[in-house]
Design brief:
Strand content: 15-25%
Structural class: alpha/beta
Number of domains: 1
CATH class: Alpha Beta
CATH architecture: 3-Layer(aba) Sandwich
Shape: globular
Number of helices: 8
Number of strands: 7
Largest sheet: 7 strands, mixed
Length: about 240
């Protein structure tokens, strides 16, 4: 059996294991596990594009809601030697798997201290560091509108002026929610989408659709202005009503 075959088999086995892990964790707690499958390669590539665009420039990067590490694996090879990556994951089992990924990743041999896994909520993260790029995999539509405002404002606080936030949202979830949830759940989902739309109108620099993901997803890039204060929830709400 050649090396390609054994490597290919290992990749397939890893994907299958991660897929089952997502399903199990989603069944345990949909609030912290919003996906039913790991992110596809195409989705991971788009989410990490802001890092790749900087080339060899040293960066501070934050990944929030990393899950089993499907995006992390795409992200690590694009980190320049002087870059640092903080990974935030609230799920205990996912955080443990991410630490194992960091310890064993061949691109981090002898320098895994450049990447740290924080088992916490992003709202509670305190690294005393500002970030050039934030990659978010958090399941916003599983949260309350107020919680989404808190997270988005925290992201903008953590970004350097001019820094980029990349996050994704699944397509068609409003209609699925309307069919499967209570009226209150459907209203909450719509309210979350309206909150996100407020940030998109003010800060979005691009949107791309990944049809080859399960389910299909839109990737958004938002940028913190160079000369503007971090917005408050009141600012965003005012922008939504104009």
């Amino acid at each position: 059996m050649d090396n390609w075959t054994t490597s290919h088999d290992r990749v397939l086995a890893q994907r299958n294991a991660e897929g089952w892990m997502f399903l199990i964790e989603a069944a345990r707690d949909l609030r912290t596990t919003g996906a039913i499958a790991p992110s596809s390669k195409a989705l991971a590539r788009l989410l990490t594009d802001p890092v790749q665009e900087h080339g060899a420039q040293p960066l501070n990067v934050l990944e929030a809601g990393a899950g089993t590490g499907s995006v992390t694996r795409t992200l690590i090879p694009h980190l320049s030697p002087s870059s640092r990556l903080d990974i935030v994951e609230a799920n205990t089992r996912f955080a443990s798997q991410l630490r194992h990924l960091v310890r064993t990743h061949p691109r981090l041999a002898g320098e895994s201290e450049r990447v740290r896994v924080h088992h916490t909520l992003v709202e509670q993260l305190d690294t005393n560091r500002a970030y050039d790029v934030i990659v978010s995999g958090l399941p916003f539509t599983n949260f309350s509108p107020t919680h989404v405002e808190t997270i988005m404002n925290r992201y903008l606080e953590l970004l350097h002026p001019g820094g980029t936030l990349a996050y994704f949202a699944y397509r068609g979830t409003r209609y699925a929610r309307a069919l499967t949830s209570s009226r209150a759940g459907a209203r909450r989902h719509r309210a979350v989408e309206e909150v996100l739309a407020g940030y998109q109108r003010q800060y979005a620099t691009g949107r791309w659709t990944v049809w080859g993901n399960l389910p299909p997803a839109d990737v958004w890039q938002l940028r913190r202005p160079l000369h503007a204060p971090v917005p408050t929830a009141l600012d965003i709400t005012a922008g939504m009503t104009r």
